[in-house]
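Recall that a protein's primary structure is simply its ordered list of amino acids. Everything else, from secondary elements to tertiary packing, is in principle encoded there. The following example makes that idea concrete.
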Amino acid sequence: MLYDVVGVLVTKKPLDRETVPEYHLTVVAQDGGGLQCRSTMHVTLTDVNDNAPRFIPHSHYTSSVPENAPVGTPVLRLAAVDPDVGISRRIRYLVEPPHAGVLFAVDAVSGVITLLQSLDREHQASYNLTVSASDQVGLHNTQIRITLELCVLVTELSFFSY
């Protein structure tokens, strides 16, 4: 809506950059005598951090790793996306306590989870991890974080050959 006295353009409803990122408008000004002029406007919406990241393709992951896997073995790669743009789109991954920095680590940028210690199936056959994905702090100083459960199954070595 354009206020005809002052020429201020305002919206009638909220705009969402993820739905419609830009607008092309034609503004017509007309005086009382019927004379008019036209001008075109190009409006590009800036983004705010209004969308949470989401894990793809699942909200629950399961992976298995052999009990003789050496330290540093990749267990699985997490993947998350965020429809925001700019810094708000960058995802950081984190393994939550109690397993953070003890048995498993995650590369904060790539999402690859690796072993920090050897695992023993006889001691523990599976691990339930909570991992999170956070977007970066955006223009409005907001950060959105999501979590997911990950089950790591430790597979036993076979000592017998047939």
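DSSP finds no helices and eleven strands in the chain. The first strand starts at residue 22 and ends at 30.
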